[in-house]
Amino acid sequence: MRVRALVLAGAVMVGGGVQMRAQMSGPPPSPPVGTREDPAKAIDGLLSMLEFQVVGAAKAMPADKYSFAPTQGIFAASQTTQFATVRTFAAQVTHLAEANYFFFEWSGIKPDADVKAIGSITTKDEAVAALEASFVYAHKAIATITPGNALVAIKPVDGFSTRATIAAFAAAHGNDHYGQMVEYLRMNGIVPPASAK
Q1: Alpha-carbon distance 43 to 86, whole Å?
Q2: Which of 24, 9, 18 has its CA nearest to residue 168?
């Protein structure tokens, strides 16, 4: 039941991503209704939408703001939320890069980067480069998903045990951090590129 719900959630997210992309660049060609689509293509569309949003946000934040993190002083004195462990903008970006390698390591593809070093990156140029490289890696992994292996159980990652559900969860996780990045941009007076018209 959990797998079915996750696959359905992934399909809804892919559909939403396709609709958003259509709003930006015109509608993509649609297959005839009832046509079985390749799972790698469908999941890759979801990842591509996340990549568009996240990389755009990462590039939009000025380099001198990469150390920004919300602090108590930004909010009303009555605010009781603790901000001591909140990630900086750079840490949001590098966390997403690390997550792409983590979620897609099931593919067996060797990363072209020193994944352990990503967490220590603090500069914009290095963080954006690491993020972009991680999406290249993730796209390669997704390309290995087939109709025959998409829903076959593999070693679980964060409780998800198929290539399709792990990939869908990777995109959902990325969207969580994208939302935080959007808030950081707006706190600094920057309109996220995906929201700009």
Answers
A1: 30
A2: 9
Name the DSSP class of 79: -
Per-residue pLDDT of the chain (197 residues; tens, 9 = 90+): 555 544 444 544 545 444 454 445 555 677 799 998 899 999 999 999 999 999 999 999 999 999 999 887 666 777 777 777 899 999 999 999 999 999 999 999 999 999 999 999 999 999 999 999 999 999 999 999 999 999 999 999 999 999 999 999 999 999 999 999 999 999 999 999 999 87
Which has the closest alpha carbon to 93: 73, 64, 67, 75? 67
- CATH for 2-187 (1.20.120.450, 3.30.420.270, 1.10.8.100, 3.40.47.10): 1.20.120.450
> Are 139 and 101 contacting, i.e. CB atoms less than 8 angstroms apart?
no
